[in-house]
Amino acid sequence: MADEPAPPQQQEVLRAVSARDMRLAIGCTPAPVEQIEAWEAYEKSQGNTLFGRYVFECDGKPTAVLALYRHRIGGRPFLWAKHGPVWLKEQSPAREARLRQMLVREVRRREPRTVFIRMHARYRARDTLELLSTITYDRTYVIDLTPREPKAIASAMPRAGRRGVLRAERVAREAGCTIAEETGLSREEFESLYAVMSETARRDGFRPHPSDVYWDMLTTLGPEHARLFVLRRDGEPHCWDLVTVSGKRAVAYYGASSSASRGFRGAEALDWFVARTMAAEGCDGLDLMGADSARVPELYGVGQYKRRFAQHPTEVDGAWDVPVHPLIYRALRRARRARHFVRDRLGVTVVIITHEMSVVRAVCDSVSLLEAGRVVESGPIEDVVADVASRLSRELVPAPAVPAGSVRPDDAVIDVALTARP
User: Fold this and answer.
1) In which element (H, E) is residue 97 found?
2) Listing from the earlier edge strand, what are the strands of the sheet with 236-246?
3) Are strands 285-287 and 249-257 parallel, antiparallel or unpaired?
4) What single DSSP character describes residue 345?
5) For FRET with 326, which of 188, 250, 306, 399 sits at 20 to 30 Å CA-CA?
6) For 143-155, what is each residue's pLDDT tens digit?
């Protein structure tokens, strides 16, 4: 664990910048798609607005940049710099810690209700805590595309991977499969692909995002930064990859495969097709996005599949939570831990009867409104909040008060409710 930073010897400044200035600061440095300007449209489609873009300067030289977006968890606001900061100069434990300190001060000044900042770091320290929700990764496998030619790309893989991709290509072809880019498909056509994701989730034991999340990523990022590749058999989709592109870096961001596709090695054939396509277009690597490590053993299964594509894993900066208000953050963590313990380990459902809407927002998955002993409204909390006509929605997310005297007799007051999805 890294020690607290010594008093700074350099002149260090954290400065808010425009998208243009951040882009100029990054220059030719490889930057993840989540930290470039195009990502803002996707975050906005999910109800997450930009908090700000910042450059961290040491002795007048840009040293790191990052973009942060507003998110909520359990009704509490937090900021997320996905795969940020982007380091432009030497990344040391002291510089990481100093940047975090300056960000916390900036957030307390601008939006003091924010509970924590989620950001990436190479070095663990006292103020970097394991994530309150979701999982991160600090290791991945990247297919080396610099040889460009398919035969040379395959030769750079481990022996098992080299044989595997060539065999998968042959087996899928003999099974009558076709693979093509379908980035421009319609919303209706995409729903058939989402059915494959739903099947994948049931088989592998995870909960998929709503269909809009994948569709919005594809359409808001546009074909310059988001591509869709599909493997079909007899016209039916069996596997698909949603690939993001930033500069010469491609990332297999989301993927799905039917159980039937295992019989003709569909997922492997598709990944190999994507790698060849990205190489032909000039990308230097295809990041398979996450593998197991000592910190994240949960990814062991997918890591076993991905390791065949590259000789060695690539170490990356994992995500951490940096509390802005430590007491509130610890209370939120305890509440979520208690809920998960009761639900997952004891296998029971906890019923909470309360008039405190902050408690409901923090710990509940679903909510019901009772009147005279009868349920008059009920549903998953995300659905209830998204229904602007719901009485429960108004209780959970009340409209701000309008100060007396601030509205003239001929003025109109419009109550605008923003939901996470259209």
Assistant:
1) helix 93-110
2) 142-144, 285-287, 249-257, 236-246, 226-233, 177-181
3) parallel
4) I
5) 399
6) 999 999 999 999 9
